[in-house]
Design brief:
The protein is α+β, with helices and mostly antiparallel strands. It has one domain (3-139): 4-Layer Sandwich (Glutamine Phosphoribosylpyrophosphate, subunit 1, domain 1). Helix content is 22%, strand content 43%. Strands 5, 6, 7, 8, 9 and 10 form a 6-stranded antiparallel β-sheet that branches. Strands 11-1-2-12 form a 4-stranded antiparallel β-sheet, with helices on one face. Helix 2 packs across helix 3 (118-128). The longest helix has 12 residues, at 44-55. It is globular. It starts with a strand and ends with a strand.
Length: 144
């Protein structure tokens, strides 16, 4: 379970890692590679392979995001504010003034609809979503 939020070139996420209803620890769920910001939610084993592919320069076909019952999603936030949502059925390109994903996405979207920053939206999700927790990680897009 996760909350990832993006607004105004800022990406934020909670850090809680769960397995079902068990809190397993914390981990950074968002990262940067040059001007790209990216984050993931879902099965760690699947999303780790896609994140390694991104760090290697996205050469060749991206690894699948489905294996048996496990699924995951990886989100890449492009310098032009387009969002590439990589999921088990392929890739979807989105453009929105703000965006959120994961178990706390509805709380985060509601907060941002009323002016919250990405960081504050994740904080709101942590308060209300049982699948989000830990601290908030924040990345700002590099500017030239």
């Amino acid at each position: 379970m996760t909350t990832i939020a993006f607004r105004d070139g800022i990406l934020a996420a909670d850090t809680l890692i769960t397995a079902g209803n068990i809190r397993c620890g914390t981990e950074t769920k968002i990262k940067a590679r040059g001007p790209l910001l990216y984050g993931s939610c879902g099965s760690c084993g699947l999303t780790d392979k896609v994140e390694a592919w991104i760090r290697a320069g996205m050469i060749g076909d991206r690894p699948p995001l489905k294996a048996g019952e496990a699924t995951g999603s990886v989100f890449v936030f492009m310098p032009d504010d387009k969002i590439v949502w990589m999921h088990e059925d392929g890739d979807t390109v989105l453009k929105a003034p703000y965006w959120a994903a994961g178990s706390g996405e509805k709380f985060a979207l509601g907060a941002m609809a009323h002016g919250a920053s990405a960081e504050d939206a994740v904080k709101a999700a942590i308060v209300h979503d049982t699948g989000s927790g830990g601290s908030v990680t924040v990345l700002r897009r590099q500017t030239a």
